[in-house]
Design brief:
Blueprint lengths: L7 E7 L6 H13 L4 E6 L14 H12 L5 E3 L2 H4 L6 H12 L4 E7 H4 L8 H7 E7 L8 H11 L4 E5 L7 H9 L10 H9 L5
Parallel strand pairs: 1-2, 1-4, 2-3, 4-5, 5-6
The chain binds NADP nicotinamide-adenine-dinucleotide phosphate.
Length: 206
């Protein structure tokens, strides 16, 4: 059954290990800047380039994402990457979401700028570009470096534009949050309270 027609949907792709305020501010910024109707958070399943053992169980990452997004009526969480068997490629997620929401819906894939720099190497990368606009969220101090021209030219060659948003709140990072928990330091104000409680209750990152 098709869902209610949404004109523009943002898709927050990431591991969210754990989700933090930087991600939420990124999604809110994209919502406003690109006039999105909805931002769908897509915690990753088994990413193509990662050792699954290094990533926290999808059950926890999904639940933390639900807790963090609960109070925003424009945010939703999808399980499609988590529930898919095997390696999760973005092309498969985009095809599924197009089928679910309808061809007329515009998809905006939002993720970290360093991830987008590698887009050319993704499975069916050219089709990815046709199915979605790409928004790279840049954190303070991040530099696209020499690769920028290459990536921008590749987008232009396919009649597309790489969108970049600078998000000061992305000074927060999941790596730092995990390290702080391990070192018994406070993570208050870095993650929503509910996520903080969830991490401690489930002894994550220790
Ligand atoms: P990740 O490990 O979660 O993050 C890589 C970097 O990007 C980190 O600096 C991270 O910051 C930041 N980041 C991640 N998601 C973000 C978001 N939504 N908004 C702002 N910053 C974000 O990245 P990943 O899970 O490997 O990849 C991200 C997405 O790209 C996933 O949906 C993944 O499936 C997709 N991807 C697809 C392919 C493919 O199809 N071949 C290959 C690579 C990635 P934090 O650590 O603070 O989160």
């Amino acid at each position: 059954m098709k869902k209610q027609v949404q004109r523009r949907i943002g898709i927050m792709g990431g591991t969210f290990d754990p989700i933090h305020y930087g991600h939420l501010v990124t999604a809110e910024a994209a919502l406003g800047e690109f006039n999105l109707d909805l931002v769908l958070f897509l915690p990753s399943g088994t990413p193509p380039h990662k050792d699954a053992r290094q990533v926290t169980d999808a059950k926890h990452r999904h639940l933390m994402t639900v807790l963090a997004t609960l109070t925003n009526p424009h945010f939703e969480v999808s399980r499609i990457d988590i529930d898919r068997e095997g390696v999760t490629y973005t092309i498969d997620s985009l095809r599924l979401l197009k089928a679910e929401y309808g061809e007329e819906t515009e998809l905006y894939f939002i993720t970290g700028a360093d991830v987008v720099m590698e887009l050319m190497t993704w499975k069916d990368s050219e089709e990815c570009l046709q199915l979605a606009e790409f928004i790279a969220a840049s954190r303070p101090g991040f530099s696209f470096g020499a690769k920028t021209t290459l990536v921008e030219e590749w987008f232009a060659k396919h009649g597309k534009k790489l969108h970049v948003i600078n998000v000061p709140a992305m000074a927060i990072s999941s790596t730092d949050v995990r390290e702080r928990v391990r070192a018994k330091k406070s993570i208050r104000y870095l993650v929503p309270e509910t996520v903080e409680y969830y991490i401690h209750k489930n002894n994550l990152y220790i």
